[in-house]
């Protein structure tokens, strides 16, 4: 009997992959063979020696002490691409919310008072404040061309945007596949210098911390929009706020709550919703369950 401990709510579609005859799956379990989790941070958790594998039902693995697990020979599986569509759709939503001033306009519309006639007079006045801009012909810089970044890039191209991509880990084969649709930049600076929007799809680590900072924001086109649906800390929030206040940035869409950002009129913060659709949760759980099963039953390692 294999024992799987779920540390977060995992979609039932994934759990159904474990037959009851051979698996015990529970949130509280003694000496589990594997952990299955979403975003819970494991850095300060005492992971029992019985754990042979960890499955992260998502793309990023920065909530797991990878080095410690590698030293123990414990593979950590993730679910690359399984939530790419969900993130892509929210990036598009973010771009449109930003360039059409939707949140500010909605707030304003809720506060219009009076009878229908006076409201419609006021509407004529206030709508002037919310004139936005359109996507076709604008350039989207995509930092990180894994499953999510590539899917965002293809969507943007289909919407008539120019797309410039940068990925330090891009293989020649992948660059060749992408070359017809995406202009590739050799550096982040080169990408930013062309971008009206920049969207980030790289993991958080020492190399990507503060990747988007004051110096780099200043190289972007005026009135640019930054979207961070990856990890907090890749964009320097203080620098972003300064650039917003200076009129350099148009908007900053950030998939993380933040005291510094939450009241800024040109910032939209979200509670890390990029991958939060039923479909993405199901896809991730199924992919991780398949990998854990294949490892426990056959010793196979995929996406580790
Ligand atoms: C991811 O890394 O794919 C996301 O953080 C997933 C999530 O929100 O659980």
Helix content: 25-40%
Radius of gyration in whole Å, from Cα? 22 Å
Q: Specify the structural class.
A: alpha/beta
Strand order of the largest sheet: 8-7-6-9-10-11-12
CATH superfamily of the largest domain: NAD(P)-binding Rossmann-like Domain
- CATH level 3 topology of the largest domain: Rossmann fold
Instruction: Summarize model confidence as the mean pLDDT.
Output: 95
Total DSSP helices: 11
Q: How many angstroms separate the termini?
A: 23 Å
Task: Indicate the proportion of strand residues.
Answer: 15-25%
**What is the level-2 CATH architecture name of the largest domain?**
3-Layer(aba) Sandwich
What's the β-strand tally? 12
Q: Can you tell me the CATH class of the largest domain?
A: Alpha Beta
Silhouette: globular
| H and E string | EHEEEHEHHHEHEHEHEHEHEEH
Low-confidence stretches: none
Total domain units: 2
Q: Major sheet: size, sense and barrel closure?
A: 7 strands, parallel
Ligand inventory reads: D-malate
Describe the secondary-structure layout.
Layout: E1 2-6, H1 12-15, E2 23-26, E3 34-37, E4 53-56, H2 66-72, E5 76-77, H3 84-99, H4 102-110, H5 116-126, E6 139-143, H6 147-158, E7 162-166, H7 172-178, E8 183-184, H8 188-194, E9 197-200, H9 214-217, E10 224-228, H10 237-245, E11 249-254, E12 267-269, H11 278-298
Helix pairs in contact: 3-6
Give your account of this protein's structure.
With 304 residues, the chain is of the alpha/beta class. The protein has two domains: 2-80 and 278-298, NAD(P)-binding Rossmann-like Domain (Rossmann fold); 84-269, Rossmann fold (3-Layer(aba) Sandwich), CATH 3.40.50. 35% of the residues lie in helices and 16% in strands. The chain contains eleven helices and twelve strands. The chain has helices spanning 12-15, 66-72, 84-99, 102-110, 116-126, 147-158, 172-178, 188-194, 214-217, 237-245, 278-298; strands at residues 2-6, 23-26, 34-37, 53-56, 76-77, 139-143, 162-166, 183-184, 197-200, 224-228, 249-254, 267-269. The strands form two sheets. The protein has a seven-stranded parallel β-sheet with strand order 8-7-6-9-10-11-12, sandwiched between helices. The longest helix has 21 residues, at 278-298. It starts with a strand and ends in a 6-residue tail after the last helix. 39% of the residues are buried. The mean pLDDT is 95. Bound molecules: D-malate (MLT). D-malate binds at residues 38-39, 58-60, 83, 272, 275. Residues 38-39, 58-60, 83, 272, 275 line the site of D-malate.
């Amino acid at each position: 009997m294999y024992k799987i401990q779920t540390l977060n709510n995992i979609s039932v579609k994934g759990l159904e992959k474990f037959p009851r005859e051979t698996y015990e799956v529970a949130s509280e379990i003694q000496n589990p063979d594997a952990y299955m989790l979403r975003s819970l941070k494991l850095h300060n958790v005492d992971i029992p020696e019985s754990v042979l594998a960890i499955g992260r039902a998502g793309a990023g693995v920065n909530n797991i002490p990878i080095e410690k697990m590698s030293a123990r020979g414990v593979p950590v599986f993730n679910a690359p691409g399984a939530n790419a569509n969900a993130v892509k759709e929210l990036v598009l939503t973010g771009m449109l919310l930003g360039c059409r001033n939707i949140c500010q306009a909605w707030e304003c519309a809720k506060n219009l008072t009076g009878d229908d006639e006076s409201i419609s007079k006021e509407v004529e006045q206030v709508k002037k404040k919310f004139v936005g801009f359109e996507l076709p012909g604008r350039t989207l810089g995509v930092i990180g061309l894994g499953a999510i970044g590539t899917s965002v890039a293809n969507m943007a191209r289909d919407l008539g945007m120019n797309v410039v991509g940068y990925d330090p880990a891009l293989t020649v084969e992948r660059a060749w596949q992408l070359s017809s649709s995406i202009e590739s930049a050799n550096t982040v600076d080169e990408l930013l210098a062309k971008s009206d929007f920049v969207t980030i799809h790289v993991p958080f680590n020492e190399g990507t911390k503060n990747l988007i900072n004051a110096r780099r924001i200043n190289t972007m086109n005026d009135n640019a929009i930054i979207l961070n649906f990856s990890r907090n800390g890749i964009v320097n929030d203080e620098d972003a706020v300064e650039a917003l206040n200076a009129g350099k940035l148009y908007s900053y869409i950030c998939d993380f709550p933040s005291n510094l950002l939450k009241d800024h009129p040109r910032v939209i913060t979200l509670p890390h919703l990029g991958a939060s659709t039923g479909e993405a949760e199901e896809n991730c759980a199924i992919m991780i369950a398949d990998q854990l099963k294949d490892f426990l039953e056959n010793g196979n390692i995929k996406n580790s």
